[in-house]
Design brief:
Oligomer: single chain
Helix content: 40-55%
Strand order of the largest sheet: 1-2-3-4
Structural class: alpha+beta
Length: about 140
């Protein structure tokens, strides 16, 4: 009768199975980490887009009524704005605005000749909805 010897190591098959299982586990962890990093960057870009939209809206609405209405002469103008080149991180944002000077019926008691509607849109990612702000500039008496 043969005597069985005790094994004091691992076989090649056990090593291969261990490596495969660890590789699959680490791959899943790496995918989770990369998605987490990507999703954490989005709120920062959203806050920057809101900041840009507010700044653009503030700039347009701070102009005198005749200037803002003149931009929309005769009726609607669509334009884009580029920020100074020293804001290089802002180059990935698309900034556009629409100014409507006649036919604004959002307020029933204000004549449409006394109000201008300004819509500023800032987009930063093709997969996300743009940040859109709407403002109104009324005629000064």
């Amino acid at each position: 009768m043969p005597i069985l010897q005790q094994s004091k190591g691992v076989t090649l098959i056990e090593m291969v199975v261990t490596i495969v299982v660890l590789s699959i586990g680490l791959g899943g962890i790496m995918i989770g980490i990369s998605q987490s990093i990507r999703s954490n960057a989005d709120p920062v870009r959203l806050v920057q887009a809101v900041f840009i939209a507010k700044a653009e809206m503030r700039e347009l609405l701070s102009q005198p009524f005749t200037t803002v209405a003149g931009l929309a002469s005769p009726q609607v103008v669509v334009g884009t704005t580029k920020w100074p080149t020293f804001f290089t991180y802002l180059s990935t944002y698309d900034i556009s605005y629409t100014i409507t000077a006649s036919g604004v019926t959002d307020f029933a008691d204000i004549p449409d000749t006394d109000i201008v509607k300004v819509v500023v849109s800032v987009s930063y990612d093709a997969h996300q909805s743009p940040v859109v702000l709407t403002g109104y500039r009324m005629k000064d008496d």
